[in-house]
Fold this sequence. Notes:
The structure is a single chain. This protein has 359 residues and is an alpha/beta fold. The chain is built from six helices and 19 strands. The strands form five sheets. The chain has a nine-stranded mixed β-sheet with strand order 5-1-2-8-6-9-11-13-14, with helices on both faces. A three-stranded antiparallel β-sheet has the order 3-10-12. A hairpin with an 8-residue loop joins strand 17 and strand 18. Helix 1 (115-127) packs parallel to helix 6, helix 3 (175-182) crosses helix 4 (196-207) and helix 3 (175-182) crosses helix 5 (217-238). The radius of gyration is 20 Å and the shape is globular. Mean pLDDT is 81; it is low at 1-55 and 58-83.
Amino acid sequence: MAGHLPLRGGANTVSFAPGFTRFGQGLDHANRSEARISPQRFRWLLLPVALLLGTLRGDESTPLAPTKPAARDSAEVSPSKLAPQGPFKVRVAVLDNFEDRDEDIDGDGHGDLTHGRTVVDHLKSQLGPHVPRVDIAEIHVPQQSVWEIQQALTRLKTSGPWKAVNLSLAVYLPIDSLAEIAGIPSMTASTLKQHQATLRQKLDSWSAQQDLSGLSTEAQSIVHLWRGPGKKLVEQLEGFGPTTAIFIGAGNSRDHINLLSLAQGPHIHVVGGVDAAGRPLGWASNSSLDTERERGEFVVTPLLNPDTNTLTGADYTGDGQADTTASELSSPRIQTGKKLCGVSLAAPRSLANYLIRDF
């Protein structure tokens, strides 16, 4: 890993060394009654089982064609210089991908913005007038593997203090395989919390064994993950307490949970998703491990020039303000009913609510 971190101007974006495997891009299910996660868009983690890593969005089955990112200035800084850039009250870190423009905002099948950009925009939208009181560090983690998340968190730990960290990333674990490992066949999403301690004990127990033939292939792979980087990552998140709040997107698959959701402690916030009316989103990984839920589904609203009726930008945070300009989009129009959806949007909004309570 390089000894210096490129801090990209203006955006205060710190880039850590490459290495993550993405787990899924934008969950976009406009005009659908139910979101569908496309397995073709996932890359396997460690072993060929349903352990999926990446940004908390499901997406279309056809890959997005990314557009060329805008040029940005950069400067080399050491980790020790990750200090507040101005008279801010609190420091917040957002770990995400801030380079690959694979988020389709206008609905034409081409990537327009980075996933990290949309996450930060929802954080800022929810903060509203409090934005100037928060120093938001955009920590670029290119491919988002478990190892790379660990490295990013390690550097954050040495460059603190941080008020909060947002992780709109996930390692998907099938609930039925976790039930098998725990020896509790009846365990479901709604009973995970009451069995959380037992599950972790069983994961430790199986990890100490060489013979895993009593488990299915999927369950064996979870055990391999746990005794490798998985448990270390969960414990690393727990180690940020009690001074740094950790916000974790629960995930976008109702039959899976996020490995990160197994972290425990009063500083751990596992955020599920609801719609504008506060109803749980059917496609989200809403389980009893959730500590809170926030809105994770938004209609993309086109903003037009009143004189020419041409597109000037778009609002995808629901606050009536422009979140992007027309020049950043690949189409001159927004597809009717286009939605931007994902628990990755709910997590930063919940983080904003947490900050506002202290202002």
